Amino acid sequence: YNIKLYCTTTLKQHQSQIFSFLDSKKIKYQAVDIAQRSEVKEEMRKKTGNPTALPPQVFNRDVYCGVSLVPDQAWVWTKIESLLRLAQRP
């Protein structure tokens, strides 16, 4: 889940880093903009189990990866594949 409107420069950078990583690994993904409809934001929050969750939020299919992928939160790029549980993809 991401947001295109009404987001800070920092948030845009975090989202861009995530998209760039996924693109570099040729990982197919669907970016879901929560600004399009309020029910999409509520869906994201329900899936994360956090009623105040903000994007970016990453899922592997319908499995929440358990992290808000923000590089300055003890984020280790070399471990992103395990964080995203990519090894478990069918």
Automatic annotation (TrEMBL):
Gene3D superfamilies named among the record's database cross-references: Glutaredoxin
Record's GO cellular component terms: cytoplasm
SUPFAM superfamilies linked: Thioredoxin-like
InterPro entries named in the record: Glut_rich_SH3-bd, SH3BGR, Thioredoxin-like_sf
Pfam families cross-referenced by the UniProt entry: SH3BGR
Family to which this protein belongs: Belongs to the SH3BGR family.
Stated name of the protein: Zgc:153284
